[in-house]
Specification:
about 45% strand, 6-stranded mixed β-sheet, mainly beta
Length: about 110
């Protein structure tokens, strides 16, 4: 079965950086577009970045210019480099295909606070 495992979250001060990682198993990773989602308390899960099989990326307006998504097909991994973090970026971050088709992993908590 498909397994998505996120890591790399933590507590960071405003303006800081974090790099999230997601390892996927049970899928032909190189044939899938991938995305990073986040869910803040009391809010719906939202797609913040996606990357297609050709490594073309798209970003939500709220993170454009601050976040960078990348992938390594040899490692079945997708990454999210987050710079200039803001308190409103606080959320649990998940990876999945952009439609959210596969079973969600446990996510990784990102907290931006001074």
């Amino acid at each position: 079965q498909v397994q998505l495992v996120e890591s790399g979250g933590g507590l960071v001060q405003p303006g800081g950086s974090l790099r999230l990682s997601c390892e996927a198993s049970g899928i032909i990773f190189s044939l899938n577009d991938m995305g990073w989602f986040r869910q803040a308390p009391g809010k719906q899960r939202e797609l913040v970045a996606s990357i297609n099989r050709g490594s073309f990326a798209n970003y939500a307006d709220s993170v454009k210019g601050r976040f960078t998504i990348s992938r390594d097909n040899a490692k079945n991994a997708v990454y999210l480099q987050m710079n200039s973090l803001k308190p409103e970026d606080t959320a649990v971050y998940y990876c999945n295909v952009p439609g959210g088709y596969y079973t969600w992993g446990q996510g990784t908590q990102v907290t931006v606070s001074s």
